[in-house]
UniProtKB/TrEMBL annotation:
Gene3D superfamilies: Periplasmic binding protein-like II (3.40.190.10)
Alphabetic keyword roster: Signal
Record organism: Dactylosporangium fulvum
Name listed for the protein in its UniProt record: Extracellular solute-binding protein
Signal peptide range: 1-25
Length: 456
């Protein structure tokens, strides 16, 4: 789920859009004149003229550098149902840009191509952080996608409230027990709710999933080529139980528990909550949309309770198995040029940082980097002249997230699953006598129906 963004490296810049290429040309490697045509998704709509033109400028630059490749643009987005139909009819795109909820299912259903060998031709393939590739591999280790952007959930906290409560803003909580203690201390000493959680519009299920990961659990598990819902698990029960104690015993979460994305984020920016779960990419909205004070913004790693993991999101490029060899190669060249280059090439990174700074986009907000520490250091040095944020305020996120595993959102109907779990989280936070185990047992029935129906 996401209206947000993030990953571990400095100067991470929102990169781009979706890639696809037509597979209608069957298995021919190129046209009669030796030109390979691919269709790329993601061009901005006509209502965003400047962004659209900037995208087309990149297409022109790519074609000039690769005269035997022609790119056709489309604003179509990936739709799992439409893709399955197109694939069966032989007219599906050859390259897809998909959310990280999709790869596991596409790989299990054999609806995407094995890119293990082709990916090795990417300029900096050997410098990828292995963790960002793990969720794009099958059980045998074969690679089926290339990450293009990614984010990780962490802890966002109000540095001013930390100081007022006698907490060290340079040392935010790293475990859920520490978070609970800090939330109570903030509430007791400042009168401001120490922690706020989303519970509506799929936010409750999304956050519960992340909390379950941090305790070593999972909301879905793969069984053969399909997935099964496992929302009724001990780790989810433990997470809900801790939230229940914070709400009713510690009284550190306030009284309004029907909060959505905008409620939590705008409230945090206004100083109404001490801590929330988010990712550093929220900082741009915090600053520009919600008018938060930059000095008060702190970011730490996602709190843990035995799972050593955080939920990640983002996008990855994947290829239709019917795409020709030439189309596969051309599509990967485009991915490398447009999506990856600004993340490993200092000159391209500096230019993107300069452009973002001129546009008022924060520069220097950490994201989960696609490439290793050596590449990150080169990029950090290149964008340093354009950095607009106090990086010390984000340091706990960088250092803490570096040691965590990255776990993607559930692969089957994640949003429907989250919606079903919203009521579970709401029950625990609005009814003092709610039983977390009983609520999850009831949710398991709904989740099982959702997941099974989606895979028939």
């Amino acid at each position: 789920m996401r209206t947000l963004s993030t990953r571990v490296a400095l100067g991470a810049l929102a990169l781009g859009l979706a890639v696809t290429s037509t597979a209608c040309a069957s298995s021919d490697d190129a046209g009669s004149d030796g030109t390979t045509t691919i269709t790329v998704m993601g061009i901005p709509p006509t209502t965003k003229a400047a962004a659209r033109q900037a995208y087309l400028d990149q297409v022109a630059a790519f074609e000039q550098a690769n005269p035997k490749i022609k790119i056709e643009t489309t604003d179509a987005a990936f739709d799992p149902t439409a893709y399955a139909t197109q694939l069966a009819g032989g007219n599906a795109p050859s390259m897809l840009l998909v959310a990280l909820t999709e790869p596991a299912g596409l790989i299990a259903r054999r609806q995407v191509a094995d890119l293990t060998t082709a990916a090795e031709e990417l300029t900096n393939f050997k410098q990828f952080d292995p963790r960002v590739l793990d969720n794009l591999r099958d059980s045998a280790g074969k690679l089926y996608g290339i990450p293009t952007s990614s984010y990780a959930l962490g802890l966002v906290y109000n540095r001013k409230l930390f100081i007022q409560a006698g907490l060290d803003p340079a040392r935010p909580p790293t475990t859920w027990d520490e978070l609970a203690a800090a939330a109570k201390q903030i509430t007791d000493r400042t009168g401001v709710p120490g922690f706020a959680e989303m519970t509506v519009r799929n936010g409750g299920g999304w956050r519960l999933t992340a909390g379950t990961y941090s305790r070593g659990g999972a909301m879905q598990v793969q069984q053969g080529e399909k997935f099964a819902a496992t929302v009724d698990n001990p780790q989810a029960v433990a997470h809900l139980t801790q939230l229940q104690r914070m709400r009713w015993q510690d009284k550190s979460m306030g009284t309004n528990q029907l909060l959505g994305y905008d409620d939590v984020n705008s409230g945090f920016a206004a100083g109404k909550f001490g801590m929330i779960i988010s990712d550093p990419g929220y900082y741009a909205s915090y600053l520009n949309q919600y008018k938060g004070d930059p000095a008060n913004f702190g970011a730490g790693a996602y709190p843990q309770a035995g799972g050593n993991a955080t939920l990640i999101g983002g996008q990855a490029a994947m290829v239709n198995p019917k795409a020709s060899a030439a189309q596969r190669a051309a599509a990967l060249k485009w991915v490398d040029f447009y999506y990856l280059r600004p993340q490993y090439e200092p000159t391209a990174a500096a230019e993107r940082a300069r452009s973002n700074k001129e546009s008022g986009i924060p520069v220097g907000v950490p994201t989960v980097a696609l490439f290793n520490t050596e590449v990150q250091q080169r990029i950090a040095e290149a964008v340093k002249p354009y950095v607009t944020v106090d990086q010390a305020n984000f340091a706990p996120f960088l250092t803490g997230t570096a040691s965590l595993q990255y776990k993607p959102e559930p692969p089957v109907e994640a949003q429907k699953l989250y919606a079903a779990l919203d009521t579970t989280v709401q029950a625990v936070l609005t009814r003092q006598d709610a039983d977390p185990a009983a609520e999850l047992a009831a949710a398991q029935k709904t989740a099982t129906t959702i997941v099974e129906q989606a895979q028939r």
